[in-house]
Q: What sequence folds into this?
């Protein structure tokens, strides 16, 4: 089989990396499909056997591509459309694997070129317009909603990444056998094109020691973006109550732009917790993994959302106890056997963190259960089987 994968993203970038596209493409190629991957000019080529990476021009003067809808992405997607048509005219593809907004034009190209269509749905695009405050126009949002519905129905296969999205799709199209829930649950190292083993060129740090971390502390580690829905303010405000019970606790917040870091540093300073908190800002993925590996407890304090955070799967597999908020975004995957779930409030979060730090047997049990749970439901063999089912449905 031969496939065209369309990824309107900066593939592959050391920061904000589209791992979901990488792993879908990697496993697809391992299952015997020859892949042409069309993507933005920004990023670095990765070494995947059987995959040819094709890029639209890069426009460095426009700056880096940001997450979410933007006029810059609309501009770049025009070139993606032109390149897609050129590839379809030149090659015969058994199927086109459209990620995110590329489904909107692939849906209309499908009857012209006669390919089968896979919609890899990482989120509801009309919801993104609202969540990222791209527009407040109900008219525009309703148009995108209707277009999204037609895209779902026109696709031969729809892949969703979490139960909430799967339910969303099933309400719009009852062909259940054509819908596949495949969580972005694998996180193997990435290999760049060129010499050398996996992480040396993509995620290089000057030394192996984590900078500026205090000795003999119990580290509470959060790693991820610092968007408002992540609940970072809840996490910081929980820290005084944690320290009342665990004197040697120390909070490490990994990620975030300079502006976001300064905002949350002010929150920590206002409650006199800045000396008990370390903000790293944006770091490379390999360094973020090192911080997480040094943790006594991992935390996901998210306060809002429905899509499952991708980091949850790596947290489950880590062997380190996880404290997370009891919201639908988490409980689609997490339960009280594999994590310590709390309400998204400072006091409740503090109680969960204290439980993980002081009651070591409870923490060990949760971490052990989590690893077993991950192996059974989300590991690489399970992921491969799901992708094999997609290819079977297409053939």
A:
């Amino acid at each position: 089989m031969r496939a065209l994968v369309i990824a309107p993203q900066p593939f592959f970038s050391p920061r904000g990396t589209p791992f979901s596209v990488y792993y879908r493409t990697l496993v697809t190629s391992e299952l015997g499909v020859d892949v042409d991957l069309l993507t933005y000019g920004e990023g670095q080529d990765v070494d995947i056997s059987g995959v040819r990476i094709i890029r639209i021009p890069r426009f460095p003067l426009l700056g880096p591509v940001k997450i979410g809808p933007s006029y810059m992405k609309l501009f770049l997607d025009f070139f993606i459309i032109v390149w897609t048509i050129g590839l379809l005219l030149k090659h015969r593809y058994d199927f086109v694997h459209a990620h995110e907004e590329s489904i909107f034009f692939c849906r209309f190209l499908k009857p012209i070129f006669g390919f089968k269509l896979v919609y890899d749905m990482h989120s509801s695009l009309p919801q993104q317009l609202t969540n990222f405050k791209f527009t407040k126009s109900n008219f525009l949002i309703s148009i995108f909603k209707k277009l999204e519905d037609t895209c779902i129905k026109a696709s031969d296969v729809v892949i969703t990444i979490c139960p909430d999205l799967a339910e969303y799709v099933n309400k719009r199209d009852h062909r259940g056998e054509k819908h596949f829930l495949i969580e972005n649950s694998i996180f193997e190292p990435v290999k760049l094109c060129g010499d050398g083993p996996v992480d040396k060129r993509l995620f290089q740090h000057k030394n192996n020691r984590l900078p500026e971390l205090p000795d003999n502390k119990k580290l509470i580690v959060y790693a991820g973006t610092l968007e408002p829905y992540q609940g970072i303010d809840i996490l910081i405000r929980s820290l005084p109550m944690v320290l009342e019970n665990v004197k040697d606790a120390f909070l490490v917040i990994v990620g975030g732009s300079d502006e976001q870091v300064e905002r949350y540093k002010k929150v920590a300073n206002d409650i006199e917790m800045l000396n008990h908190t370390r903000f790293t800002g944006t770091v490379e993925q390999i360094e973020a993994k090192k911080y997480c590996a040094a943790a006594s407890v991992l935390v996901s304090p998210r306060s809002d959302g429905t899509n499952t955070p991708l980091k949850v799967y790596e947290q489950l597999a880590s062997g380190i106890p996880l404290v997370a908020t009891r919201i639908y975004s988490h409980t689609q995957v997490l339960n009280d056997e594999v994590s310590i779930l709390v309400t998204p409030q400072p006091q409740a979060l503090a109680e969960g963190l204290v439980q993980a730090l002081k009651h070591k047997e409870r923490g060990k049990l949760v971490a052990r259960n989590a690893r077993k749970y991950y192996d059974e439901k989300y590991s690489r063999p399970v992921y491969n089987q799901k992708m094999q089912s997609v290819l079977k449905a297409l053939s």
Notes: The longest strand covers residues 2-7. Confidence is low (pLDDT under 50) at residues 195-209. The two ends are 9 Å apart (CA to CA).
